[in-house]
Amino acid sequence: MAFIQSLDFFHCIEEHRKCLLKAIQRMDSQNVVKELTPKPSCQIVASIDNIVQDVLESLSKNESPTLTIENRSNWSNIEFTESVGLQMAKNCTTRKIRSNNPRSAQRFALTMKILSVIYKLLQTSTYATKRDIFYENVQLYGSQTTVDSIITDISCMLKAPRRSLHILSTSKGCVAGNLLYIEQDGTKVDCSFNTSGVLVPANVEGVTNLRTTARFVLIIEKDATFQRLLDDNFCGKCGPCILITGKGVPDLNTRLFVRKLWDVFQIPIFILVDADPYGIEIMCIYKYGSVSMSFEAHNLTVPSIAWLGLLPSDIERLHIPTEVLIPLSELDQRKLLSLQKRPYLSCQPLWKHELEIMSSRKMKAEIQVLTSLSPTFLTGIYLPNKLQYGGWI
């Protein structure tokens, strides 16, 4: 009986994989824009040279130099396509960072400073993390957030991924399961050996020789749930598979790594998040991207990701006790309303229905509520049944 059930499980996953591959072929036939190739260092150096030249020319004319930045965080500049997700419109509005304006003069100076840091990194073929840059001059930058924001602005302005600027960020995400790869420095990583997962590599682009026999990838919102699945030997019971978590809102490296897994293996990718507005938004970031990083959508989004759970309809279907549910706060309700207005809801009628269920009940639930049914319900019943019988949307 167990053997027959395992065959059913693999058949369900394989059918999902075939559907995804057919969708990819359709996108190819429609000439969908492909992932952008990172710019060579010489092109970026030339672009920075042009920016500096423009600044010098303005100064020579006794004019106040300015920098032009695209409005990357404005929804009016965002286009949505089902095959890519949220991406920046071609003719989006821009904003000026003026050197003679008291409100933007410091931003102008810091942007030029970080441009000089990037220039040096490119010329010396070295890399630095965002924290390295911040701690070079803490008093000058003021905060890590300021450095992060300016680096993203520069990446958008130069139309180059951050890794092409030779700037790395420290990873917070973890990966485990049936996956081997080699990092840029030659380190061989076997994700099946570490019982608590290994950190997502800081230089995802430099990862090579990825190998797996996994049937699927499961993204998990929270680290606690990720660790629970490892403790319960989920990979052994329902694998082979790859587990990955961004520990909440995913960092750039985790998003890049998920995209790389999809590009290399093209196996089904599922996601497990809380049945609340913020869990759903985290899923949307993996699947369709974020507004602030829309200029790099082709490198970060995986529109084929399927929502495995926890679905608001699961709460009713499984008769989760009301006492373990949490009422939606005013902030939750505003976030839910925002999600219901997102452009991707138009192509996701089943998502729309799930959000309507949450809105009508005005209740949310964390993945941990499943323990109210049984301590091992998540890994022993819920996830295996979902994967075996196609309980995803």
Estimated radius of gyration: 23 Å
Strand arrangement, largest sheet? 10-7-13-12-14-15
Unreliable spans are: 1-7, 23-37
Number of strands: 17
CATH topology group of the largest domain: Dna Topoisomerase Vi A Subunit, Chain: A, domain 2
Your description of this structure?
The protein is of the alpha/beta class. It folds into 2 domains: 41-64 and 99-168, Arc Repressor Mutant, subunit A (Orthogonal Bundle), CATH 1.10.10; 171-389, Dna Topoisomerase Vi A Subunit, Chain: A, domain 2. Helix content is 46%, strand content 15%. The chain has 15 helices and 17 strands. The chain has a 6-stranded mixed sheet with strand order 10-7-13-12-14-15, sandwiched between helices. Strand 8 and strand 9 form a beta hairpin. 36% of the residues are buried.
Could you give a short description of this structure?
This protein is an alpha/beta fold and 393 residues long. It has helices at 2-29, 41-60, 105-124, 130-136, 138-141, 144-158, 223-231, 234-238, 252-265, 277-288, 297-300, 312-317, 330-340, 349-361, 377-389, and strands at residues 66-70, 78-81, 85-88, 94-98, 128-129, 167-168, 174-177, 180-182, 188-190, 198-199, 208-211, 216-220, 241-245, 269-272, 306-309, 326-327, 363-364.
